[in-house]
Q: What sequence folds into this?
């Protein structure tokens, strides 16, 4: 089920058979000369929706703006500060918990989000820890490229030039979903440089076209399709495993 | 243009011809027995994307979670606290301003958002006011039902039973966009009660199925289509007017 | 009773017969060439104290600084940021609730406060909504010019030139209360311009003497007295209605 | 001049001859069986307004709610959390600084405010310190009972039973200003106990009628008048000294 | 016991015999030409550890960064904003309270910390006061120079030139603990000036070498040893008294 | 140099030859039956001070309380919430930047800190990114076990039973520094279980004696000494490399 495309009685019914929900979370940020600004929120949304076609899972609306301060030197990037991002994530969790969701999996599409999402988890867990009570929910962060088998497939598809931003694998996923939006460019150099990530101006000076270590020209819709299919299957398994986890007994 | 489906060089090019952007903003919250949880963010997204088909406007990604604390008694609702919502809106504005956007119009789909959006505008304007400098951008909040002619059309379409939550007009808009998701229910009473809006438990006691003053059974995809068509045209006009506004001279 | 001019045992006794309190709330901001900076907090205070003379109501101390960032271009204006304003309002509510007040009515004197006051209400209601419990109190915002009959009287008194800031009706109320402070000026133009409200510098460029759409020269102490008398009576009715409201049964 | 009872052009004119303003600041909190809840904001307001009658000083509106969490066990007390109080004080300072005020003196009426006011000063000074720039304003906190000679007079008037909360000196000041509100009670014991100040329930257990170490029955309007007269004169001197302070040269 | 040098089972055992803990708290800030930057956190740490040698007390890790914004004009100073400092102190208290500590004494080494520490106490007490419940812990702030007898000894040792920052008494304490770090300088003038404390640039202009009213050349390790010995004994007494305090009965 | 044991003129002199500083950062939290509560802040402090003996580096005071909410079920743990931790880290950075430090390396001793430290870096970088200016400093996070060669040595020393909390390597480091504090226990099972990390009660139920996947009985002071010696050398190299990094040219 897609939560936003359901009614509240339908969610009430779902909660009788499952307490698990997956939240696609990403970012809206530059992805090099050819990547869509929405790449990082589109990828987990695409994968989660693909998974939903074949399994009784619940997909929350997509959390589409993340922590992308370093990309602000490129037009179109929209970023939350980490403190805002943490506050928003905790409000999403609080809301889902009110309804009785006990397993909340964030399917992430942006490396720059990881630290803040984990900080958000700790922020909301800390409320229970300081109050000496159970949280009532378990949280899990999974990057789509870390879903079972997906990293291996990407390395096989792109033995070199994968890099870490505007990667051919994420570009491929969006090409598969939106083939009409496939774009090309002359990448120079073909494989972008690597380096540390700091504030936006430093970033743009190091990575003039926005890519980090990647060659997006290697992406094809077909490769994207293979990644999505595998990721969708692995996501269902991940959710199954998470759903069947039991609370530890003291 | 749809910002998330564009590349950064495309946005850079857009900025040479326009400094205006529209942000669809809504909420994910219960909409009665038949309304989609996503109704309030879908409506402005649908209208903005329809407008974009016929005009050179830029549509930002949709801000899909708003201030819906009063709906938390119904499964599926996700809400930000006003303080979080304000922080997030100001980060969106800050990001867009970094790129040179000077006219930022929020096309809103949720009445419960209005106060917090206006508070957010004041929060970020206050930074400039305390610093004795120009803000560098102008902000505008427009509810889609307040776009020129739209309210009149809705009143004509639904002379009674329109109400203020889970209204037939918003339901109709989503029916037009997603006819396959049209749902039915026996509404009892046909027209829901009215009353004040307070915390979630009070809300659910007053409005047992979630509707306020409305009869969603009156909605049809056709009426929705008429609303969308008119709203899209009026949005383009609204953006034109906003874009051509000049800064006052002291 | 005036809360600040009472002792705690007197408030304790009052709470045995009523759980309702009215909080005058306004702003300290420029009101054009002749209006007092305190106009917006004085008006609700004047009206509430007038009402108190003839009814067993409890009037809290006046919340005298509000959200007036747009007026900061004019000397004497003092403003809270919306985030500060929200935090302060919630602390007032929390304090009153501790003592057992269950109906808290904010009698507002400043249009620019409305969004932030409503955001504050949602902020504190959200605590209960996230915790799945009753709030224990009901909140109401009433602008003094929206008290029963008051708007009609003002429109009758000032068929034109009323405007929306430094209005002849609010000036008249302060003239009635403080006739010795009545000031005059040559207004040019007699009726001030209208326009959008943004940051302070933009505001001063649009509204050079601070007025918006108004002609304060129309104010007289007599008209003010009529407004106060009516508003005071309507406030008592409003409080009676609010006090007798019953909690909805789920 | 009283700021709230002036117009913006009058403040503009004042700023040409002085950059100094005094802000009465207090609290609304229980003051024992006979003390007014407003005692702590009334005292500095009374003194500042008395001073203003004979000197060209500017008196800001009164900051009437302070840090009184420990008094919340007694009906009528309204308190800000320290964090809210700090935020509000810095917004007042920011606002006054925008207009060019360079010397801002807070005339305080509540011991419990001192720490938070000083923390607020450090909070706003820190902005300049981190930015390696001048603040542009100097801040001063003066408790009215520390004005030159006032403490000595109070000790002379009340050699015993003065105590530290609901003191006969502060009660006397309000009796002088509002003789019609003078109240009496059988104080038992005549002099209240002393002890540490912690949370509200602890406070009420230690100080059952709200007083700390004081015997308010010793207060008379005449003693209050003497205190006000002296305090008003000392305030003018204090403001003169503060106004003539020069910035140190590095 | 030194908490950081113990294991959790050892703390568990300690809690069976005592619910009291002392937290050394200070600052890392310039202390004139010869004083160590760590002086203000070293002094309470030295004293608490000395006390611990002869008594069954528990010494928490040292809170080593405080509120020192005014010293930021001198290299090496590290400061928290008051708001950050308050948040951190409340988290320490919350953590200690989780384990069952009921008496938490902060042994302070920096005058500039006092206001913020007290504000922090009020901030966390306010949570209980607003919730109408007991805090479950009592907090106490004691400056090491206010421990019984210590101030008298310092005045006797340094009848003049003690001053209030980079004082010979605090310098002496660090000299006693770290004689190898004793430094000398030509102080000119021998006794530093006094004056108000504001933002960092103002501070450095008033106090060019960082001292306030003091002559650190008077410090000797021997005098420091006498101060530490006395302070350590008085601290044990202070903790004994605090531990044996009983909750008041309502 | 040790910053806290230096004077401000000494730091001023240091800044003429280097703009680099290392901040040991850790946590005060349970480390199993035999590990010191201070283990995680002691390890980086020990290593940094060892490094300082042979190189001209500057070691800041130790940031000794981190993000340890999950350990709050064990007595003695003190934790900041992530939001507090982020605020404090940014204040440290702001302070060091005021003095001209341009390379700030945090030498971390606690895995649970990583997310929040990175979030803090993004939080402060975002200020520059939103303001379209250079940050003026570069930040680096290095866990001591990730210093060149250290992980390999630990794996060699402890081929099994290393685990991830209360590891024999960190215990060994503290044993080397404080051999008199070496403790023993019967670990049952010898190697602790693994599992996810959530709120404190869940944690204690999963990991009854506090260890995760480790066998601390394998630690010896000698192994600790080897780790410290290597880590200290690698830290100096790391600082050298960081110091010589040049800003990228746009």
A:
């Amino acid at each position: 089920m897609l939560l936003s495309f359901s009614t509240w009685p339908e969610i009430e019914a779902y909660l009788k058979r499952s307490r698990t929900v997956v939240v696609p979370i990403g970012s809206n940020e530059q992805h090099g000369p050819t990547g869509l600004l929405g790449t990082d929120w589109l990828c987990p949304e695409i994968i989660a929706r693909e998974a939903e076609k074949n399994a009784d899972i619940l997909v929350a609306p997509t959390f589409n703006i993340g922590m992308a301060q370093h990309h602000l030197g490129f037009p179109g990037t929209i970023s939350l500060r980490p403190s805002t991002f943490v506050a928003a994530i905790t409000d999403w969790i609080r809301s889902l918990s009110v309804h009785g969701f006990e397993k909340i999996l964030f399917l992430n599409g942006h490396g720059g989000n990881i630290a803040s999402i984990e900080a958000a988890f700790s922020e909301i867990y800390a409320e229970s820890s300081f109050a000496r009570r159970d949280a009532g929910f378990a949280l899990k962060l999974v990057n789509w490229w870390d879903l079972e088998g997906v990293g291996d497939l990407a390395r096989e598809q792109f033995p070199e030039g994968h890099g870490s931003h505007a990667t051919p694998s994420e570009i491929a996923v969006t090409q598969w979903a939106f083939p009409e939006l496939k774009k090309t460019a002359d990448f120079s150099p073909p494989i972008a440089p690597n380096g540390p990530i700091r504030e936006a101006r430093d970033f743009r000076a190091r990575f003039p076209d926005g890519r980090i270590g990647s060659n997006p020209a290697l992406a094809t819709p077909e490769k994207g399709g293979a990644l999505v299919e595998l990721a969708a299957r692995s996501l269902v398994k991940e959710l199954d495993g998470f759903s069947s986890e039991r609370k530890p007994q003291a």
Q: What stands out?
A: The two ends of chain B are 35 Å apart (CA to CA).
